[in-house]
Amino acid sequence: MASETAVEGAAHAPTASEYIVHHLGHLSTQHQDKIIDFSIFNVDTIILSVLMGIVGLFFMIRAAKQATSGVPGRFQAFVELVVEMVNDQAKNIVHGDRSFIAPLALTVFVWVALMNSLDFLPVDLFSAVFGLFGLDIHFRVVPTADLNGALGMAIGVFALMIYYNLKIKGVGGFVHELFCAPFGAHPALWLPNLGLNIIEFVAKTVSLGMRLFGNMYAGELVFLLIALLGSTSPWWGFGMHVVAGSIWAIFHILIVLLQAFIFMMLTLVYLGQAHEGH
Fold first, then answer.
1. What are 101-121's pLDDT values in tens digits?
2. What total number of domains does the chain contain?
3. Hey, which residues are catalytic here?
4. Which pTM value belongs to this model?
5. Domain containing residue 239
6. Average pLDDT in the 175-199 region?
7. Average pLDDT score over residue span 137-159
8. What CA–CA distance (Å, rounded) separates 81 from 64?
9. Is residue 2 one of the residues assigned to a domain?
């Protein structure tokens, strides 16, 4: 009876492709039969991104309330180090009022770093939890590995670029720059100038989101491939899984922090460019 059960379980075990496809699926409002459908919401991305935002706010508020003028503790020293790093970058890049931009950059760095760090959770954690309740549903853990999440943040930065261009240069100055830069103010150059500026804004937005998404999606995929090593053999596959997973997790710490830093820096650069004219 036990052998029959084992054979039956092996027969129903997912293949490597099915395993990866299942873990790359989203908990959505409906099945994603279309490539683009704006009526679909990835619920897992929304839940975890909001949750990481709340976690980030909790720790930053806690650090602010516990801050002392004396010798800081480890937590306060770490937060002060991050705040100083972000503030120094904002001073070097943005030449103007930074009362909103510097806190924004800090929020972006902390938020993206926390969302990226969800990649360190075991890939089968949520599947196992849902399995306890007899549920077999898709649930993506890393919001930044979802193109919708990464591009959503990039579109937010795009909206801020437009806002600061209008705030600093005025409507007339911004429109003039769209049509008269970078080639010149001759009427024959208005359309080429406008086309180039539109391409520049689109390229900034798309590249900002795609860079974060591509790196985090690739990291998530590597974790899934490493997880498959544990099922290749009763003994050496599991050993390779532990060794490779540990090595990749250590290396992935750099990727998680680096991608948060790059997203923050590009946000500062794009908003800094909005303060400058051609």
1. 999 999 999 999 999 999 998
2. 1
3. 207, 211, 215
4. 0.86
5. 10-274
6. 93
7. 93
8. 13
9. no
